[in-house]
Sequence to fold (241 residues):
Amino acid sequence: MIELFDMHSHILPNVDDGSKNMEMTIEMLRIAYSQGIRNMVATPHYMLGADNCSVAELKERLQEVQEEALKIGDDFHIYLGNELYYSEGIWDRLDQKEALTLNDSRYVLVEFDVSEKYKVIYDALKECTRRGYFPVIAHIERYMALFMDFDKVEELMNLGAYVQVNISSLEGGLTDRVASFCRKLLKYNMIHIFGTDAHRAAGRAPTPKKGAAYIEKKYGAGTVKLLMHTNPKKMLNNKIL
Ligand SMILES: [Fe+2]
Fold:
């Protein structure tokens, strides 16, 4: 069995709009483990002007969650990062160590407003790379400026940006436009990693199994391993993909 990595989740209790308490977190961890996840990155939201949890607080929560994960399985590891909501000045927070990269690597998970202009996204990612970080675009399927526009996605990749898709976005029927976009991204090798973006134990739970089965059926176990194990592992170890 491939040990899956979940690179985007809101499993830390009571730090953002994700898990509400430790009970919910434990339930989410159990679900994740039963679905084959063995490595999970907690990526609480970080937004300028919001009442963000301090890094010290996040680290405390992380430690508690790590202990709970080890009770579920001694091969179950939890890492820390942030999901940065882009606005001008956000990269300064990384430099100041107030916002976190993924497991202290150069990789940064960043989300944009869904209706953000392409030029803003482009310039933001360019500035991020100029500062020596490797931006990872969170759930790329959400942004209107990039939707079904493979040239733009390619341009961002050429800039040095990486692409994360929510694994559940691969599900859905033939008429599902988001699923269709994600399947095409997958077909064109334009996805680097997946995440569950789990917020809850029910509804937005960490359930990658169905999406992973789709990838395996279409492209084989090797592709599942690349996108859900090898690439994520390299990122967390600060290696170049
Ligand atoms: Fe998220």
Observations:
- Residues 4-236 form a domain with the TIM Barrel fold (CATH 3.20.20.140).
- The longest helix spans residues 55-72.
- The chain has one domain: 4-236.
- The first strand starts at residue 4 and ends at 9.
